[in-house]
Amino acid sequence: MVLLAVSFICFLIFRFTGDPVLMLAGKYATQQEREQVRIAYGLDRPFYVQYANFLGNALKGNFGKSYISQVDALDTILERFPATFELALTAICISLLAGVLLGVVVSIKPKSLVSRLIMAGSLGGISIPTFLMGILWVMLFAVFLEWLPPFGRGETVQIGPWRTGFLTLDGLKHIIMPALTLSGYQLAVILRLTRAGMREVLSEEYIKTAWSKGLSPFTVIVKHALRNVLIPVVTIAGLSFGELIAFSIVTESIFQWPGMGNLLLVSIFETDHPVIVTYIMMAACIILAINILVDLLYAWLNPKIQYN
Amino acid sequence: MGTAVDKNSSEPVLSIDNLKTHFFSRKGVARAVDGVSFDLTPGEVTGIVGESGCGKSVTALSVMGLVPNPPGRVVDGRILFHGKNLLDLDITALRKIRGAGIAMIFQEPMSSLNPVYTIGNQISEMFRLHKGYDKKQALAAAVDMLERVQIPSPHKRVNEYPHQLSGGMRQRAMIAMAMSCDPEILIADEPTTALDVTVQAQILDLMHRLKDDFSTAIQLITHDLGVIAEMADQVVVMYAGQVVEQARTRELFQHTLHPYTRGLLASIPVLGHRTRGMDEDLVEIKGMIPSLHDLPAGCRFSNRCPEVMDTCKTRLPDLTDMGSGHQVRCWLHTKGGSA
Ligand SMILES: Nc1ncnc2c1ncn2[C@@H]1O[C@H](COP(=O)(O)OP(=O)(O)OP(=O)(O)O)[C@@H](O)[C@H]1O
Ligand code: SF4
Ligand SMILES: [Mg+2]
Question: The complex's ipTM?
């Protein structure tokens, strides 16, 4: 249903923003040549027939060829997918680990100086725009300290269809700053969620029970409290993972990351409609798939939900 | 009904002595527990009664070392467990006593069990922690415990989550958990208030039996005098953070001394024992409990007491022994009141 709606919107974009004939046939084509192109691409047929065709092709994974490179649009995007996926994965891991850890610290000692600093930092994480954060990281690590490379993906290794940057030191160095930048906002959100959740859970009766059993503070906080807090936190993190994959555009363009986001930017500049449309459809698919996965994860974490 | 343990034969297992637990906030100091003393004896049930907010739970939490801090703090007194003052112990030593020596169960059995772990997991935690059992032994022991508290098909229940059990069943599981390491003291904070009457009777029955089996000292907190009459060997009546009357159960019901206790008895239709001194059958205690921030200068019950005298308003009476362990805090019974 959702996909259908998205596909319809994509189709509208495809069809009504700029005349594709102009692009396909070239600016200097004659009227006759244009007509030929129009017929060849089926652009003369009625609106609903065109949409049905578009849908049929989309189902077969055929979104047309890129106007620019004349390569299959889907292939172009899939080639870029690993870079974006690895970036998003690293970012979500950073924000989950750091966010939960800091959130727990803050909830246990809310009045300490460290906690106040963390909370101030998280405000920054939420309010500093991504591009500014990216630039700040570059200034610090690349320009000032000269520890990390400022752009690109570094050395990669090809494993089957997948090109990974995780296996080389150079690749790992390259991913740190973009991942930090991309994770900034999520980290702050997860931190705040964890803190709020912990506060609530720590005042629950079952935590009192856990203390009264003589358990260690670590067991009480991690086993009995955090486990309950993780249910909503992991759900939110999972949902935002899809968004990170789909919308890492700003980060990718700051760091010249060769991922899908960068490709989209270029395609927009070049009005490369098939690529744009394919990108949007892919993004919708990814987010949908992740939603389903997160639902399953939620059910698995929460014993109250059972599929019998 | 109460087992007739000779009053003088058993040493108390826990002595609370002049306990003061206060809560500090911007509004000032709330003296939630203000000089409470009583003993727990092995194999006996000590009932703690009083209206909501009189400090029953805070007394219990003070014993467990679980007063939320901030805002609360034990500011004075001693809690002697086998002669050792629990208030002097560090957290490691206290943790060894929690669960193993002194266990506690709470009012709401749904919220006092962790929703994301099985019953078996939560009970076996006790065996692993205090007895060093491995996972398998602990789970077997947990099944045994469930059997002891008469949960049907314990092998199945042990793998279930709290939400899969009924309220009464959950409270049984809670009791199984609390009793698993054979504690010398069980503190039960309104263990049956959230349950319906028949289940309540079953749970009380179970506690009574376990107490006799293990000769546990039970501190039973309730505001139901019916439960007290049924279960307790000894009663402590609390009002606004203080003990106002304390006696053996039969003595208290037959020779009620404090006007507040009489009011409590009169306001609840207790079977059998009916107090004298009140004209009506069911009378509400009039007036409001004083705010803990703004206590009356004299007797804390003086703004509601039907027998209030001039002295009462200015001077706080001491807890006075009337013989055979019956103590009362009231100028009617303490010398110097009518002066
Ligand atoms: N966490 C807290 N913060 C501040 N004050 C508290 C806190 N817990 C308890 N108090 C104070 O201690 C007083 C006694 O509370 P307590 O829970 O012991 O009452 P109770 O006798 O158990 O009542 P109930 O029958 O409602 O359980 C309360 O009136 C309140 O003023
Ligand atoms: S001291 Fe006075 S006010 Fe207090 S209970 Fe006794 S008679 Fe009532
Ligand atoms: Mg209470």
Answer: 0.85
